[in-house]
Amino acid sequence: MAIVIGVVGPHDLVDQVAATCEEQPGVSALRLDYDHESQAPAIVEAHTAAVEGWLFTGIVPYMLSRDAEALTRPAAFVDYTGATLLSALVRLQHQGVDVTRLSIDTLPAADVVATFAEAGLPTGELRTLPYRPEMTSEKAVAFHRRGPAHPVITCLSSVHEALRDDMRVLRLAPSTHSVRVALRQLLLTAQGQAQEDAQIALGLVEVANDEGLLREATALGGTVAAFRGGTHLLVTTRGPLHDATGGFTGLPLLARLAVQNNVVRVGFGLGRSAAEAESLARRALARARRIGDVAAVLSLRADTDIVLESVPTGQAGEQNLSVIARRVGLSVPTLEKLLEARRAAGDEPLTTREIADRLAVQQRTARRMLHRLELAGLAERTGNLTSGSSGRPLTLYRLTL
Q1: SS3 at position 117
Q2: What is the DSSP letter of 393?
Q3: CA 109 to CA 88: how far, in whole Å?
Q4: What span, in angstroms and rounded, lies between the C-alpha atoms of 233 and 278?
Q5: Residue range 288-323, pLDDT digits in tens
Q6: How far is residue 179's CA from residue 58's CA, in Å, rounded to a whole number?
Q7: pLDDT tens digits for 205-257?
Q8: Which InterPro entries does the UniProt entry name for this protein (predicted)?
Q9: By three-state DSSP, how is residue 191 classified?
Q10: How far apart are CA 355 and CA 367, in angstroms?
């Protein structure tokens, strides 16, 4: 099965970078382009469930997505220093441009100087604007216009568009070599992450009232079944468990189940096989019993046990949203709007039209979203409502997020 890499960048670079990625056997590229680099975080958040890793066509969309905390998958960006910058200098020299007098944005000043030194070029009249979190395309445009009338090298399509009519400007395009280097680094991380996330996580749950346990298992991307002696078996994998527990620190379901139960004990085991995971889960549950009536423990290999703290309900909802978003392929903001709709409706079901209106989407889009939630056990159909016209009846859904 191919590993899917999401390629994010401006329209004219995404296809080039994606085509280079797909030269690698076992790699499929999801092409995601934008009109302006500021759109990158929203694109990443909307498509996270569809990819195993992210490759950005440059550092700026990568940094914007990272700073927005949208990256929940391994990610890398194509480096424009070295071979990419050097090929641009050669191209400019062939056009008769004095490459010792340039205005360059985004690239680290030290890397620019190093590339020029390797080419035997002086650097005394270079102007550089390295990328910083506060840098915007407007600030980059102002930087280039503020100084001497040097030719411009930019990494940003928005800067190129703003300057091309009144200045000599070259926008860097990633070299094939640079794309391959970035892809190799990304694949090493993504494949390692995929193998790690696929580790089996088994949970043994002691609870008298199992109402809500199926929902908790679904939020963890898993299933639940009756086990021996009144214990329940929760089966998932490492990735969703890691995300839902905030990096193996707190277990939200512990607090929620404790609302209706005096005794809630959970033992998770993480192993490379079902047998190993079950053995570790038994050890974890035994330790949870020694801790008290409400306790959870995660047991790993090498005799490592981690006590998972009980997380208050409010924090739990925040942690679970990212897991659910990853599970059902919807963005966190969309899930937050659905939660608002559920709270506003109370126990009353909502029609597909009401959901569509609240999300500002078409009804067919709302139906697709609700179908995904239904398959994940987070929404249930309760009937149909005749719309009063000749159109199709409106399906009623109760949200159970």
Answers
A1: helix
A2: P
A3: 16
A4: 9
A5: 999 999 999 999 877 788 888 876 544 444 446 666
A6: 10
A7: 998 888 888 888 887 878 888 887 779 999 998 878 887 787 788 888 888 88
A8: WH-like_DNA-bd_sf (IPR036388), WH_DNA-bd_sf (IPR036390)
A9: helix
A10: 9
